[in-house]
Amino acid sequence: MADACGQILLGSGLTVLSHPLMYIKVLIQVGHEPLPPTLGRNLFGRQVHQLPGLFAYAKHIIQIDGKAGLFNGLVPRLCAGSMGTIVHSKVLQKCQEQGTPQVLGGQQKAAEGSLQHVVNETTKEMIARSCATVVTHPFHVITLRCMVQFIGRETKYSGVFDSIVTVYREEGILGFFAGLIPRLLGDVLSLWICNLLAHLINTYAIDDSMSHTGEIKNCSQAVTGFFASMLTYPFVLVSNLMAVNNCGLAGGLPPYASVYPTWVDCWRHLSKESNMSRGNSLFFRKLPAGKMYAIDQKRFF
């Protein structure tokens, strides 16, 4: 219990610190571009037209809503983080006690570091993460909608309990799980890609006789995690867009977004428009190819 409390406190602190970054990323994902392109320099020093980055976007939000405006949607996100930590810890503990189901094949106790061991541990982690994601997704939906309200200056989602009532009244139970499927798929794929790639690198590319082997393996895990998150980013984008799509907010309706019947339709539309990486970068943001900036609508079309 003490470990869970410690994880909740640490997670809550990190959530507070990272919230402005997530807030800006979500607004960019939806397509809100309140500032016109400017002339800047890319990583190679060449002059190019760029979209405003993280700090310029944050300054714009502060000018409108003050510094507190950077933390819109923080409370439901903290609720999701705390609840997710508890659920993940309980489910993972239960999986460890019961062992890996026979249906996965192989022995119950595989040698540590073997492929079978990696598969067993990843499966347990997948189950725990998936349970936590399903339980906390309603708070995730509310968080995103609180953020997207910035675009139309709405106050529809003003508190956790009021937001729960609003979602249930307008969309029913299913409204709390908008965008859940692509989020689950992205989490599962990211976890397996990360762990399997790290296992391959640690097994075939790192010699155990080398000094600082433990640090190198930890580094490889971090690198593969970053690589996996980049590969599965489209799932994050589609999930966030579906969570706010057609919910009555300006950011989830035309012209910012089409009304998508399913997340697959959203994926196809983004792919067709070459927008699968929108919001992936908060620095050195290049202009979308073949797009025109509409000053009055504060978006590209």
UniProtKB/TrEMBL annotation:
Pfam name, any one: Mito_carr
Keyword list, A-Z: Membrane, Mitochondrion, Mitochondrion outer membrane, Repeat, Transmembrane, Transmembrane helix, Transport
Entry's localization field: Mitochondrion outer membrane
GO-annotated cellular components: mitochondrial outer membrane
Record-linked InterPro entries: MCP_dom_sf, MCP_transmembrane
Any GO BP: positive regulation of apoptotic process
Solcar repeats: 116-204
Topology relative to the membrane: Multi-pass membrane protein
Family per similarity comment: Belongs to the mitochondrial carrier (TC 2.A.29) family.
Protein name, entry field: Mitochondrial carrier homolog 2
Species for this entry: Perca flavescens (American yellow perch)
